[in-house]
Write a structure and sequence with these properties.
The chain is α/β, with parallel strands linked by helices. The protein has 2 domains: 76 residues, no CATH class; 369 residues, TIM Barrel (Alpha-Beta Barrel). It is 43% helix and 13% strand. The strands form 5 sheets. It has an 8-stranded parallel beta sheet with strand order 5-15-14-12-11-8-7-6. It has a 3-stranded mixed beta sheet with strand order 2-16-17, covered by helices on one side. Strands 1-13 form a two-stranded antiparallel sheet. It is globular. The N and C termini lie far apart (90 Å).
Length: 463
Amino acid sequence: MHAFWAALLAWVVILILMAVSLLLLRRQIIKFFFANFTKVLMTDNYVENLAEMYAVIFKLTPQLLLECELRSASGKSLERPFGTALRFSKWEYLFFNPVYLSRMPLADGLSAGTDVVIGPKARRPLTLQLPVMIGGMAYCNALSPAVKVALAKAASAVGTCANTGHGPFLKEERAAADKLVLQYSKGQWAHDEEIIRQADMIEIAFGRGSIGGTAVQISSETTRDDPRFAELIGVQPGEEYKMPRRFSGIENATDLKKLVNKLRSITGGVPIGVKIGATHYLEQELDIFVDAGVDAIAICGAEGGTHGSAASLLDNLGLPTLPAVIRAAHYFDLHKLRGKISLLVGGGLVEPGQFLKALALGADAVFIGTAALVALVHTQSGKVLPWEPPTGLIFNAGRSREQFDIEAGAKSLANFLRSCNAEMQSLAAAMGRCHINQINKKDLCSIHPGLAKIAEVDLAWQP
């Protein structure tokens, strides 16, 4: 026993001496290793030099290098969550114009109104207390039921709406949401009249900005691991399902109008809208939707997120959000659709300045996805970091989804939405606007000549 303690003491002394030596000689040790490393780095041929990796990384970017390696490992289409990391829409080139005496700022104690009516001509229009909607994010193929409930609770707390996404209808989401948008998808679920009647708005989902109208593949693993999901979409556990690219039975405005009228009749007159990914053929698509008599049109720009889609689609498909809202708003003005059809815009919008710029350019409301999930997770990410990403908490296939706290998540997202609304009100007050629906292109200028021209706003250096 004495020998054990003696040996342990000896090791402790040795470790202490080593630590003291390293502490005293740290400069010399670091200098020795650094001098030898830099000598090798600066004398080795490039093909043998570690610096060659630096050149490759920054030629490809760290993300593209990683994706090259992931493709090499699997040989399959690379599924990337949350959309593109590229910033196509240069919102930062647009600036709001404050006023002083040419028009007075809003008086102290007054707050700009932020309520908005979606589908103003519908028999039962949808009224929101703020113009920021939760975008469509589906259960199971993307989010867990708990996350869907948290999104609904947050939306209810601030007076906006939740959205089912293209997945099946969840009773607990409906119970948690004061106002719920039902996505009528190309899948054959959530088409029952009993479900449709529970919607506060219908969104016929043709596609999204980041993936267009591509097919959505639901794997056998997904239906096997969640039998409830399999039952809701009408397949057996372990059976694959592929949502088609096209809507069955809809090939033109006449077909779409029949569906719009049918849904309007079933729901008793809630707004019936459509959702598409932004495209250079935008005006041609809008012609069809207007002819079909829709109450709202939701346009998702190329920066829109997704649970997972081919990286090449996310980085290369569609029209970015900023030119999309400019063109759609111009179309609405040209065809005198203001006050008749609501224009909803989303895709890569993350902060209140961007929200309000989209509204100033002509959108009636905006919708968010990735930003909502980031706000929802908030400090709960500490439950899984650094061993796995926060998506493990929110995705239905996430290893840590049971650790997600619904009430905490709902509170965090509600706070985010309240904060965004307060900042939009502050911007409106600085521009002398009593309501955000008064803010328009005259309240904007740009330092980018091309953007100023297409957005029809003043160029900053020309009075």
